[in-house]
Amino acid sequence: MTQATPDVIRPRFTRDEKARKSFTSSLRAHVLGTQARRMREHYDEVVQPQFQRTHGRLPADGQEVRSVMKRERDFHFFSSVRSCAQEMVFASVIPAVERDMEELASRASELARDEQGVGGSLTLDPNFQVPENVTRLDVHLAPGSFHAEWGDDDVSAGAIYDSATRVFAFRQFGDDMNDIGMTMSNFVRLRYPDFKPTKILDCGCTVGHNTLPWATTFPDAEMHAIDVGPGLLRYAHARAQALEIPVHFHQMSATNMAFEDNSFDVVFSSMFLHELPLKDIKAFFKEAYRVLRPGGLLINMELPPNSRTEPYQSFHLDWDTYYNNEPHYKPFRDQDYPSLCVGAGFEADDCIEVTLPRYTFVGEEEFSQSVHKPAVFDNSTGRMNPKGTRWYGFGAFKAGEKA
Ligand SMILES: C[S@@+](CC[C@H](N)C(=O)[O-])C[C@H]1O[C@@H](n2cnc3c(N)ncnc32)[C@H](O)[C@@H]1O
Questions:
Q1: For residues 124 and 145, what is the distance between their CA atoms, to the nearest angstrom?
Q2: What is the CATH number of the domain that holds 378?
């Protein structure tokens, strides 16, 4: 069953706009593929040997690699093109969303009325204070960050994110933009066949790209998803309704959830933790522990920690911290992930860590063979690499038998 965004909720792009989107995607693929490889060659052939000559040793971590790469023209070029491409991602979709804004809002309202009886829901909180990590800056250079609203029923933030992420991902998130959710949910299904979740929560769901796979992988489970952006949530709800996948969306902070203790079997997040300052990451882990039932699983898809990546790779993966308005990225990646789980109440022995091939790319058979294999860390792990990507996940089971 496809989970690609249906036309009813998508803006219409002119031919010129389509060409701009296509160019921007290709530019991103080029800079993150060919250009990144050339920069690595330059490092291996010139920069690292020079460092070794002057220091008598190799760089110890990503910060030391960064201190020398910052002087290199290859890096200036890579960073400039990557930053420009990031701005172009949004510039390539915003005009169409602005043009269709009112129509999209009215279509979303119609879908939300649920005349077709899908059964999903949307709960917005009129008194909700969007947290500062979202409001203080245009996160990853998206104009308006995640929360801007232009009217009562506005869905622009969601429409922009949905279309922009397709441009950004240059097909690396799968044809339906749901590969991360497909990979993580099918990992849980195949790795733990006796674990049958009946209630699942996705935190920081944005427009639900990676929420919906959980609902289809576990069709008997009740699916909930939270985010802080009202326009994202309206859009996510309308999109799920149009795809006839029942999900309950809530405007809520993952650091302070309104759900009862012991109420979920799975708490999932993807590309979420790096958006939070450390104190909020710790608050989220405590909340995840609280709302999980005994025997339940917290599983987060993220970039691997700096302790797992070699110095050059750490330097490469921390790029967004400095140049993409994502200041919490490196502080998060500097954490010991199992310690975050243990600090929230999970037992050290119940922590898990996985690296997985992409489910929608390799298919069920090859994927099912990989779910028992130990984690692998190389330049494909966690990184959008046109030559291949392996998603990284970590988390923990909450001790105790399932109630
Ligand atoms: C990079 S996006 C996550 C992408 C999404 N999980 C996916 O897989 O497509 C980060 C999301 O976290 C949300 N967010 C930020 N702080 C939050 C918080 N305290 N509680 C819940 N959501 C939050 C943002 O609004 C944004 O939608």
A1: 18
A2: 3.40.50.150
Counting other chains too, the contacts that 64-69 makes at CB distance below 8 Å and 24 or more residues apart are 64/311, 65/311, 65/312, 65/314, 65/315, 66/315, 66/318, 69/39, 69/43, 69/315
Give distance in angstroms: CA of 395 to centre of ligand 1: 17
Report how many domains make up the chain: 1
**Three-state SS at 120:** coil
Measured from the CB, is residue 204 less than 6 Å from ligand 1? yes
Give the whole-angstrom CA distance, residue 141 versus residue 232. 17
Ligand 1 mean position, distance from CA 160 (Å): 15
Q: Using the mean position of ligand 1's atoms as its centre, give its distance from the Cα of residue 232 in Å.
A: 10
Domain ranges, residue 157 = 1-403
Residue type for 301, please?
A: M
Q: What tokens were used for 280?
A: 């909020």
Identify which of 75, 57, 56 has the alpha carbon closest to the alpha carbon of residue 66.
Answer: 75
Q: Which of 66, 87, 8, 78 is nearest to 39 (CA)?
A: 78
Predicted TM-score (pTM) of the model is 0.97
Ligand 1 binding pocket includes 65 (Cβ within 6 Å): no
The verdict on the CB of residue 165 being under 6 Å from ligand 1 is: no
Which tens digits make up the pLDDT trace of 240-298?
999 999 999 999 999 999 999 999 999 999 999 999 999 999 999 999 999 999 999 99
